[in-house]
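User: For a benchmark we're assembling, each entry needs the component sequences followed by a predicted structure for the full assembly. Here are entry 17's components. Please fill in the structure.
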Amino acid sequence: MLKIATWNVNSVKARKERLLSWLQREMPDVLSLQELKVEADGFPLAEVQDAGYQAVLNAQKTYNGVALLAKRELLDGQSGFGDAVEDTQARHVEATVCGLRVLSVYAPNGGDGAGDKWTYKLAWLDRLLAYLERTHDPRAPLLLCGDLNIAPDDKDVARPDAWKHTVLCRPEVRDAFARLLAWGLSDVMRAHHPEGGPYTWWDYRMLGFQKGNGLRIDHILATLPLAAACTSAGVDRNERKGTQPSDHAPVYALFDWPKSA
DNA sequence: ATGGTTGCTTAGCAA
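Assistant: Structure for entry 17:
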């Protein structure tokens, strides 16, 4: 059994104690992190290693930054799509663990949906798909984990009318999500929660969590050989409570898959 | 329509 999780921690510095205690309590085999917001030397590597984890980082100062943590060896770490685009934002890292290729991604938010940030988001999602098509095989065991900044369906939004025209819900990004699935990825959360949700993010503004104004924008997508082995999936909603929470809760999925693979 | 909160950086941006 493999436990895979993904968590946008919204600053690994601000979330260090929460991250370490969550790791020790939940002991996922693999944890995908987003929004580290620190350079590599600001990442709490020694503490993470003390907790029994290896790490592969694509770190960046102030914004973005992604990582993969794992109890087993992380092999062949790689960052960035290696395409023709000049991109300074750290939004992708991947590695092989337990025979799986695992990607941790932080998709652009898209801002107000009018300017450069929106153009960049749509282009980045296109580049992600092109990268998968170019470098990966959907018949192989692969996991795409992270904050895609897409709520795939109105069922994934507590108040769909309020969010309908935003960058998280517009048809363009829902189409990008659908194209990832068409390539060969399966939304394991949807498979185990066909009713929609559970939500993974609540805006700090407007006291989103307190008002139940959530969306499902963090995802674990699996190619078919792995999706078939997924036995359950959920969101650790409690981690959004208490003092100094991230605005995202951890998302996890269990797979009937050998750790030794 | 606007506002509300948090984090990084230090007044303004990003989410």
